[in-house]
Specification:
184 residues, mainly alpha, Arc Repressor Mutant, subunit A, 2 domains, elongated
Length: 184
């Protein structure tokens, strides 16, 4: 993915971070969270003994804690057979190749591959492939492609079907993803 990126960093006291993920992750930034971050940066170092600062920190921490993790990466299966199927599925996302065809030559049955995907990625092959397509489309949109072109690139002849899939996977429509700063 290429393009302009803006990043803001806010550090919170450990006492305010209960409920946050244990490891590093990307979260969707809602319009409210964006404004809270910008206000925090405008104010500067927040002091606990200033009531306005304490309230701002509390609301900021609350919003961060209740914001969903953005699904910006996709887990590949570790089993060599399932990984081969996953890589084959990603060769040309504009083609609708059935799983039964992708499994041929993998050394595993259709049922085994289906079971491995659930065990190793936490989702069915179909859901996994939808997420792969949504993330690829997101890259295309970030590069300036239209919603229709991004949908066609990942195998959707119908723009409305593509928008529905994108919203189901990423939490917002393609047209609003960047203007809303991601999923809310």
């Amino acid at each position: 993915m290429t393009g302009v990126v803006r990043m803001r960093t806010v550090y919170l006291r450990p006492g305010l971070t209960g409920g946050l993920p244990e490891s590093c992750c990307v979260i969707g930034v809602t319009p409210l969270l964006r404004e809270l971050i910008l206000e925090t940066l405008r104010v500067g170092m927040l002091a606990d003994d200033i009531p306005e600062h304490a309230r701002l920190a509390a609301v900021l921490a609350d919003q961060i804690t209740h914001t969903r993790e953005a699904p910006l990466r996709i887990k590949l299966p570790t089993d060599a057979r399932a990984r081969a199927v996953a890589k084959s599925a990603q060769v040309d996302l504009s083609l609708a190749v059935p799983l039964s065809e992708l499994v041929r030559g993998s050394g595993a049955s259709l049922r085994t591959i289906e079971r491995l995907f659930v065990q190793e990625t936490g989702m069915t092959f179909g859901r996994w492939l939808q997420r792969v397509k949504a993330l690829h489309a997101l890259e295309r949109l970030a590069a300036g492609d239209s919603v229709t072109a991004a949908g066609l690139a990942v195998g959707y002849d119908s723009t409305s079907a593509f928008i529905a899939m994108f919203k189901r996977v990423l939490g917002t429509t393609p047209g609003h993803y960047f203007t809303d700063s991601g999923p809310s």
